[in-house]
Predict the structure.
Amino acid sequence: MGIGRQNKLMAAPRLHAGTDEPGAPSDGALPIQSPWQVCLLSTSIRGQALYRAIIDSANPNKVERLERHFARHFDQLRDVVEDPDCAIYFLTSNREGRGSPAAEADRVLRLKIK
């Protein structure tokens, strides 16, 4: 993780994955009800992971750490949302016309955190 450059029109990012993590986030969600509160969830198409940035509860401008979940387990992850029952849903999508995706390539996955 590193710190980005800053100029007069933009603020430096609070966190970025650096050169070790491939690709940019494809979507993001701020869980409000699940046990994963006080974090930012994001998916990554090229990185093929669900990322969880833990926000410092004493300083919301600070990211404590970045966790990577399901790395290279589901291929391309595109969207992430929280439902009213506190479950996290994320979407895989691998049928954009490249390669030979498996029959189960496009899925909606449900994650219930206890």
Summary: The first strand starts at residue 25 and ends at 29. DSSP finds no helices and seven strands in the chain.
